[in-house]
Design goal:
Helix 2 packs across helix 3, helix 4 runs antiparallel to helix 9 and helix 6 crosses helix 8. The strands form 2 sheets. Strands 6-5-4-9-8-7 form a 6-stranded antiparallel sheet, sandwiched between helices. Strands 1-3-2 form a 3-stranded antiparallel sheet. It has 9 helices and 9 strands. Helices cover about 40% and strands about 20% of the residues. It is of the alpha+beta class. A hairpin with a 2-residue loop joins strand 2 and strand 3.
């Protein structure tokens, strides 16, 4: 989706977008921020929030709003990462079997996307060996999918991180990254346009926890010649939704990403596939 995509139309659609945005935040947020993230006019956001507050759906603290009864956020600790991998492995295999392209599973560690697993055709072995086990979140579709579905982490990332470029296509400005994350959230998938590895592009969808905040991302990638991400978006989103349901059913800690906990010292497996994403 491009930056010119229109905002949601109809009261129901606007409420859904607004509620999803509120659910993704760990702390109360203001009207200006909600307006920017949802692309709704401030007057519309204010009116909808007033109705939701009157109905007991949201709480207001000063000029900031949050879903009523929102629990404190707790991100999954390192001891749960292996379990998360086991829960999501079948979905990784399903995506690979259904597409035959490079498939990755990533979480966030510090400011880096860390690849827990990668599946790929044998012909791409050399390309995979050129990628690192972890890369800056903004350089991959998986990292951007995680940031797009954790607005608080995205705000901290935009504020704190120097946007290094791995390729000439890597996003290099905060304004551009912020716009890309908004579009990824509205689209449901994040895109990688040769931003991690030249010649490869891809897409990634978030695996969501109990509050609609990403705990991981599933990525799909392939060479610019011969792979069209748009052809697989529906399948990618469907498998990511099923993976999210599995995370919730099995009670894997799922309140948010691990994006801003202290990075572990343990070695990680597998580089990202599409640039993998």
């Amino acid at each position: 989706m491009h930056g010119h995509q229109p905002p949601p139309r109809g009261v129901a659609a606007k409420l859904i977008v607004l509620l999803h945005e509120l659910a993704a935040h760990r702390e109360p947020v203001g009207v200006t921020h909600l307006s920017r993230r949802t692309r709704l006019p401030k007057s519309t956001v204010h009116r909808l929030l007033a109705d939701l507050e009157a109905g007991g759906v949201v709480d207001r603290t000063g000029r900031r709003y949050a879903l009523a009864g929102t629990p404190a956020w707790h991100g999954p600790g390192p001891q749960h990462e292996a379990r998360l991998h086991k829960v999501l492995k079948p979905f990784l295999l399903e995506l690979y079997q259904g597409t035959g392209h490079v498939v990755t599973l990533a979480t966030a560690n510090g400011h880096m996307a860390r690849f827990l697993d990668v599946l790929y055709p044998r012909r791409f072995t050399d390309a995979i060996l050129r990628t690192a086990a972890s890369v800056p979140l903004h350089c991959t579709a998986t990292g951007k999918a995680i940031l797009a579905y954790d607005p608080a982490a995205a705000e901290a990332y935009l504020r704190e991180v120097t946007l290094v470029r791995l390729t000439r296509n890597t996003i290099g400005t905060r304004r551009e990254l912020d716009r890309d994350l908004v579009e990824a959230r509205l689209r449901g998938v994040a895109l990688d346009r040769e931003e991690h590895l030249p010649g490869f592009w891809g897409a990634a969808a978030p695996v969501l926890g109990g509050r609609g905040t990403a705990v991981a991302a599933l990525g799909l990638a392939g060479p610019v010649r011969g792979f069209q991400p748009a052809e697989h978006v529906a399948q990618l989103r469907a498998i990511a939704r099923a993976a999210s349901e599995a995370v919730l059913r099995l009670d894997v800690p799922a309140g948010g990403t691990t994006a801003f906990r202290e990075p572990e010292r343990s070695a990680q497996t597998g580089p990202d596939g599409t640039d993998p994403p």
